[in-house]
Amino acid sequence: MWSQSFLASPHFSSPPKLSLFSSSSSSSYSSHQKIHKRILCLTQNPSSKTEINLSKRHLNLSILTLFFNGFFLLDKTKSIEELQRYTDSNNGFTLLIPSSYTKVEKAGANALFEEPNNGSNNIGVVVSPVRIKSLDQFGTPQFVADKLINAEKRKESTKEAEVVSVGERSGLGQQVYEFEYKIDSTRGGIKRVFSAAFVSSNKLYLLNVVHSDKPENPLDSSTRVLLEQVLHSFDALPLT
Fold it and tell me: What pTM was computed for the model?
């Protein structure tokens, strides 16, 4: 999370196998007759076996195609249903929020959303006036990440803090820095944090997406994908 000390920086203000099993001796002659007839049939009409195999293969491929297409379509629809657009026209930002999250009021946050019955999983946005016009005037993404993690380490409640990844993307007329880090704190244990920051109209926009990542209940892949969608959706509104 972005601490007050960080914000107070002077810069800011395969086919199937065929198995043959031998029968008992009393029925071996009958079995041999059936095999002989089968071989004779295939010899007289060799294309029939190929046609049957091709038909089965085509059917199997069709079923698999329908299955996987349906699976991915449902998965995509699920992702869309789980997220909804939140826009703050007064402060000039927008992002996607899980539809199950509820908006709560908290001093110092311009917007805060919490998971029901688990407030430690939350999404927060803070907007502050600054003197710089772009985030690169403050430093590179790695520089900002170092500042961020050092601010976290200075907190009394922080036991460990580690940067996982640092990135950058283009937003609406500005660069957006993105960070992922882990914190082990006396307040809530191990947490995974996804952060994004950008400067627009002399305002610093900070997003924190916080989720529990304890060893006994680690962050699962589907939730991670959802939270990353939130992270990448954070952007400024067009200037009017």
Answer: 0.68
